[in-house]
Amino acid sequence: MTALRIGLIGVNYAQVTHLPAYRALAAEGLVELVALATARPETARAAADRHGVPRAHVGYQALCADPDVDLVDIVTRPSLHLEMARAALDAGKRVLCEAPLAPTVAEGEELATAARDRGFVDMQSRFQPGLAELRRRVRDGYVGRVDNVAVTAFYPTFTTEAAVAGSGWCAEAVHGASSLRVHGLHTADLLRWTFGELTDVRGSAATREPAWLGRVAADSADSAAWTARTADGAVCSVHTSWVAPLGAGFRMVVHGSEGVLRAEADGHTGHFPVRLCGARSGDDGVRELVPASGGPASAFEALARALAGGDTAGVPTFDDGLAALRVAAAVECGPAA
């Protein structure tokens, strides 16, 4: 099998998951990171040297035009995704875009239309073994009729110096990120993937902490709560925050007519391993079904492995990214047109 040749736009966030995953897959001959791009010559060359990437491009346009790149991986703030993804698609590339796909539904629609079958979104939580097993058991009838799904995701992210230093731009709503649009949309994708399309979405989002660490002005929504109905009529609730200093992490509980499933992680499911427990009527109690295992890059590595192997059936597409944006729009200002 020929290795998938990848070009990376943006390096900062990619150092946590994308670059380690590509190194592991390159060692197996599955991918080759052939180029990267940043906005300035000095940062592009330094990053390429540091990570052993053959070519350093200045600006995304040069990378998108590189004939040796098969797939463009966009790891930048959402407000830049439209122009970057459009350039890559116009050049005939496949595209993997960081979530959220875009800052607005309108831009998401444009990208989904342009991509057809060439656009994928990095909503890698689907590739956590605990969450994949939850989906399988729900669909196999482990809990019977699904009646209620409750999700909480409380993280201390932007109460920490490291997060603010590395991704402080998330404080500004103009860049397209918020607790709802990042962690909340990963959860929305998991709900759609597991239970089908969501309807009757309604909720509220707010900025509760206007100054991160007392010095970084913030106007992006840091807290959100919303409800929805699944395709089969079950009631869902989701409550998220990324400024909860003592946040306990992620928890999804599925209550059905014949059982319960509980998925838990110490942090964002894109990076933290998920433990799955469950019980059926008549059992002595809840038992562990899938232990938490893996590291920060494991879920993304599994997603990238699927792309490299051509097994893309489970990889979130631009259409999935657009559907998640519509959930956010419904929470923020009513159903999207």
UniProtKB/TrEMBL annotation:
The keyword Magnesium does not apply. InterPro entries: Gfo/Idh/MocA-like_OxRdtase_N, Gfo/Idh/MocA_oxidrdct_glycsds, GFO_IDH_MocA-like_dom, NAD(P)-bd_dom_sf. It holds the Pfam family GFO_IDH_MocA. Residues 132-261 form the GFO/IDH/MocA-like oxidoreductase domain. Residues 4-119 form the Gfo/Idh/MocA-like oxidoreductase N-terminal domain. Keywords: Oxidoreductase. The keyword Metal-binding does not apply. This is Dehydrogenase. It comes from Pseudonocardia parietis.
